[in-house]
Design brief:
With about 130 residues, the protein is an all-alpha fold. It has one domain (about 5-125). It is built from four helices and no strands. The protein has helices spanning about 5-25, 30-35, 40-90, 95-125. The longest helix is centred in the middle third of the chain and has 47 residues, at about 40-90. The N and C termini lie close together (about 10 Å).
Length: about 130
């Protein structure tokens, strides 16, 4: 069995980021922008939207199954405190609403990735095979 390490976490982060940023990002190149501005058939928009909705729902469900409500709450509080601290120490300077949205989405992706990886991390920490 292959060991679960940093590379595995990174690959999961990239997968979650591609799903979340593919659904919405402030750059104007996302499903939301495509669906609102495109003249393509509505049934295609609906099909792609349902697939993205199902993928996002699956990721959030995995996060809640892995961490539970208390774990998700604690993780959210920890990540929120890190985000606010970085902002207050001026290590991250947000000039416009698009940057704020990217910052929020980045921390959301990180939270979902932690939730998706938590079972494997817990197994690795406890030494189970």
């Amino acid at each position: 069995m292959k060991k679960f390490g940093f590379y595995s976490i990174f690959l999961r982060w990239v997968l979650v980021a591609s799903i979340v940023f593919g659904t919405y990002n402030p750059s104007g190149r996302s499903f939301v922008h495509w669906a609102m501005e495109s003249e393509i058939e509505t049934s295609l928009k609906l099909s792609v939207g349902l697939v993205l909705f199902a993928l996002n729902l699956m990721l959030i469900h995995l996060m809640f199954r892995s961490l539970g409500y208390v774990g998700v709450t604690l993780m959210t509080i920890c990540l929120l405190s890190i985000a606010i601290t970085l902002q207050r120490l001026e290590l991250v300077i947000l000039y416009n609403w698009g940057q704020v949205q990217l910052y929020i989405i980045f921390f959301f992706v990180t939270a979902v990735t932690i939730g998706v990886c938590w079972s494997a991390i817990r197994t690795r920490i406890s030494g189970q095979v």
